[in-house]
Amino acid sequence: MDGAKPPAGGGKLELEEALLQIVQQHHQQSLRQRQQTERAKKDALRSAVRVADLLVDAVDGGVQELFVNEKRIELEARALLSTVARYRKQTDQWLAATNEINSVLKEIGDFENWMKIMDFDCKSVNAAICNIHQS
């Protein structure tokens, strides 16, 4: 039995080496895992930045298109306002001309009426003179 027992100092040394080896393996695995985690973290960060850039580009493209459309609408609105102002001025001129024509026509009508009255008065005076002359 004494031969079956390992020497007291030798068994302790082997156990110490085995524990040291386990600690080293654990340390190496931890380093590998930490490196993998760092790589995954960097990849995730790059992917997130890429997604953010793509989203910003997509939104910027839409915003840019909206901005261009807004400018075009503003230009068209200004052109439309200018056209409306021109038409309003032309309509006012036509209205003034129409009112002037109406006024002239009224004056012509008034003059015609006055002429009829004068004609009637002249005929009445002429008839009265004829009656006086015949009497």
TrEMBL record:
This is Biogenesis of lysosome-related organelles complex 1 subunit 1. It holds the Pfam family GCN5L1. It comes from the Eukaryota. Belongs to the BLOC1S1 family. It comes from Digitaria exilis. InterPro entries: BLOC1S1. GO terms for cellular component: BLOC-1 complex. GO terms for biological process: endosomal transport.
